[in-house]
Design brief:
The complex is a heterodimer of chains A (323) and B (307). By secondary structure, chain A is mainly α. Chain A contains 13 helices and two strands. In chain A, 71% of the residues lie in helices and 1% in strands. A two-stranded antiparallel sheet of chain A has the order 1-2. With 307 residues, chain B is mainly α. In chain B, 77% of the residues lie in helices and 3% in strands. The longest helix of chain B has 33 residues. The radius of gyration of chain B is 20 Å and the shape is globular. The chains are: A mainly alpha (323), B mainly alpha (307). Chains A and B meet through α6, α11 and α13 of A and α3, α4, α9 and α11 of B.
């Protein structure tokens, strides 16, 4: 079982991931040479959404739980940072753990109710809970209601890590992304991840083997939520503006599309998917105002014809059990 | 005065409920029979609203507008079914969600190209612009009363169709065991298209009637669609009866919550706290209702029997 798990992250895909991270590390110097600081902003956003996509893939790809509400955790993380800043707490050492813990707690509650159900019910319930949080965000006038509010200062790290500096912030995000992928790698290859994947392929069998699949799923759901919350904390630092739109249901769809576009059930896929989708959006929106009218059919075509995602272009792992 | 207000809001809740039912019935049938999650159902509602509004504005006849909306949406729905959805019946729910999400992006943008991003104005037809005098001195807008009447009539017709006719028998049989139905010689592919068309027509009817009440703009479909999801999850996916009960429940809870939660809270909390918490809580109410129902009945109130 352990050797099968190791081959779930085969060399070509691991290499692709490392190469991608290395290329991402080169973005700021290259952007500096080209005098295009815009690219630092752009790829920072790409990486933040990639963290969210990796976290979603933990439950979607490895756990088989089709959560259509991952934007909720982005939102909770963003609110945790912006609300503490609103009350004068600007230290990232408080804000970021708070973002993670708050979104883990929210994911725990949502998960505890939704994991009891399955299939279509699960999809709709996760969507509905996210919608509920979205309306909560719109309703709280204290934090700007549907207009949102400005984040006046980015998270402070005792003056050691100035996030106000674009390049420093960039490498912080890159570091978090690398750590998230590393964490994901450890998780899915650990006993925990194997149980999770076992429950995806054959839940009755895992139950018969004596595993409480509900607990494993709930734990995975909470971990994914926490990581999503961290991405939200980064996102609000990136935009320097908090808005309930972080939790809009189309963002959940967008993150889900990143996972599928890149290839779900892999760690390389979500990262590649995030890069591909944001670049595609940037190109299309530079081209026409009605870019979503083009993106929609592209999405349909990807789902209908390119099932393995971008990762499917790389040599496949040798495991037979994988879908 | 207060009693009149409560009665009026009850009627508004009923009116919103039957609207939700028109959408939920189609969505739940399509899921029950084709096992298809169609997020783009809201787009059909939007197409219905736009076509009805445009034709009504052009010809001056509301009835013609509704008829055109039904016809156009039926065509659009069938085209979508043949081009994209047919391939998706055998796929898992994730693929269906994503592909129909792509369709939503396309439809919203297509509507924005044709009619612009701003909301377009739809007026109440003149013959329904008055008020009805109800017993007890309640004056209720005739248009909203007409929606209630049409919605309830459709509910009855649909109930008869599903439980008393040959087509309904096939629909129910298709929901419980489609392999067997197909083996017995029913053209399942045709049955699918008919059911999808029926759902599209109901969505168009809801959209056409919604025009004068809600704003007609891109994205209007999704706002209501997510509430329709709550309806069918509460009612039990695949059950038309569940859709009706769920729709009325959600319609009433949502409307009454928006109308009375803030004043009710104000009697307990301070006025400013009630002003903050009231609207936020009111818009969360139906999701709390859903969570509560699912906690005790994970398959909804009327689980459809599946073979």
């Amino acid at each position: 079982m352990a050797s099968a798990a190791r081959s779930a992250w085969p060399a070509p895909r691991a290499l692709a991931l490392l190469a991608t991270l290395a290329l991402l590390a080169l973005v700021p110097p290259v952007a500096g040479l080209l005098h295009q600081p815009f690219y630092v902003e752009l790829f920072r956003r790409v990486m933040i959404l990639a963290i969210a996509a990796v976290s979603l893939d933990l439950i979607l790809g490895y756990g088989g739980m089709v959560s259509f509400g991952h934007a909720a955790y982005l939102g909770v993380g963003a609110y945790a940072v912006a609300v503490s800043a609103h009350y004068g707490v600007t230290s990232g050492l408080v804000q970021w753990p708070l973002a993670v813990l708050a979104s883990m707690a929210v994911a725990g509650v949502i998960g505890a109710i939704s994991i009891r159900t399955s299939g279509l019910y699960f999809i709709m319930i996760t969507l509905a809970f996210t919608q509920m949080l979205y309306y909560l965000g719109i309703g709280i006038e204290e934090f700007g209601g549907d207009n949102g509010m400005r984040l006046t200062t980015r998270s402070q790290f005792a003056g050691l890590v100035p996030l106000a500096h674009p390049t420093v912030f960039y490498y912080v995000v890159l570091g978090v992304l690398a750590a998230a992928v590393g964490l994901g790698h450890r998780l899915v290859n650990a006993r925990f991840g194997l149980v999770l994947q076992g429950a995806r392929s054959n839940e009755p069998r895992m139950r018969a083997l004596g595993f409480s699949t509900f607990r494993y799923r709930l734990a995975a759901f909470a971990i994914a939520g926490g990581l999503g919350g961290l991405a939200g904390a980064l996102l609000v630092n990136q935009t320097e503006y908090l808005t309930p739109d972080f939790m809009h249901w189309t963002r959940s769809g967008e993150i889900m599309f990143m996972v599928i576009l890149g290839g779900m059930g892999t760690l390389t896929g979500p990262v590649l998917g995030a890069i591909a989708l944001i670049l595609l959006e940037t190109v299309l929106s530079g081209w026409t105002e009605h870019w979503q009218g083009l993106l929609g059919p592209i999405l349909v075509l990807v789902v209908l014809f390119a099932r393995g995602g971008l990762v499917g272009l790389l040599p496949a792992p040798r495991t037979g059990a994988e879908r | 005065m207060t009693l009149l207000l409560v009665c009026e809001q009850l009627l508004n809740g009923l009116q919103y409920g039957v609207m939700l039912f028109l959408l939920a019935a189609g969505l739940t049938l399509v899921f029950g029979i084709m096992n298809l999650v169609n997020l783009a159902h809201g787009s059909l509602y939007m197409v219905g609203a736009y076509v009805a509004t445009a034709v009504f504005a052009r010809t001056g006849s509301f009835v013609l507008g509704v008829a055109a909306a039904l016809a156009a949406t039926l065509l659009v729905g069938m085209a979508v079914e043949v081009v994209a959805l047919r391939t998706l019946y055998e796929r898992d729910h994730l693929d269906q969600v994503l592909a129909t999400f792509g369709l939503i992006l396309f439809f919203n943008e297509a509507v924005a190209v044709l009619w612009g991003r701003a909301a377009i104005h739809a007026s109440v037809p003149p013959f329904l612009s008055g008020h009805l005098e109800l017993p007890g001195g309640l004056r209720y807008p005739a248009y909203r009363a007409a929606i209630i009447a049409v919605g309830l009539a459709v509910a009855v017709l649909l109930g008869v169709l599903v439980s008393r006719t040959r087509l309904g028998m096939r629909i129910r049989a298709g929901a419980s065991n489609r392999t067997m139905v197909s083996a017995l010689g029913v053209n399942v592919r045709l049955l699918y298209t008919v059911v999808f068309g029926l759902g599209a027509a109901l969505a168009a009817l809801a959209g056409a009637m919604a025009g004068p009440i809600f704003s007609v703009q891109p994205g209007m479909g999704e706002e209501i669609l997510i509430q329709v999801f709550v309806v069918i999850v509460v009612g039990g996916i695949g059950s038309v009866r569940g859709a009706l009960v769920g729709a009325l429940l959600v319609g009433l809870v949502d409307t009454l919550g928006r109308a009375f939660l803030r004043p009710l809270l104000a009697t307990v909390l301070s006025l400013s706290a009630a002003n903050t918490a009231g609207p936020a809580l009111a818009s969360m109410l139906i999701y709390l209702l859903m969570a509560g129902v699912l906690l005790f009945r994970p398959q909804g109130l009327f689980p459809a029997s599946r073979g």
